[in-house]
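This section describes the prediction task in plain terms. A model, or a person checking by hand, is given the sequence of a single protein chain and must write out its three-dimensional structure as a string of tokens. No templates, partner chains or ligands are provided. The sample shown here is typical of the held-out split.
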Amino acid sequence: MNKSSTSLTVFGVYLLGMGFGLVFMPNTLIGILGLPPTDEVWIRVLGVVTLVLAYYYIQAARTNLRTFASWTVPARILVFFFFTGFVLAGWVGPVMSALGAIDLVGALWTAWALRKEKS
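The expected answer:
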């Protein structure tokens, strides 16, 4: 497994944790983010979507899909900016910026790995 695939695998495992958390203990997870508890199904639906994304990341890593890896970099950087914007707007607590930072660090790791593999 190359370095970019390793970064995708790690991020995929992180997404697995988030996805299972949103499906099976959503109020605990969203409570940490400073969001009010909910009994609505949307949070569990988001968990399933997160699990599907985790599957994509892990499968792309297993097959060394560099193109997929490169697509994830700008998208994960945008997540950081959106999450930070949500915090600045007062919609969520500052922990959301920390989650966005995980995306940012993962994106930078993947970008670095892709550059190293290219040279």
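For orientation: The mean pLDDT is 95.
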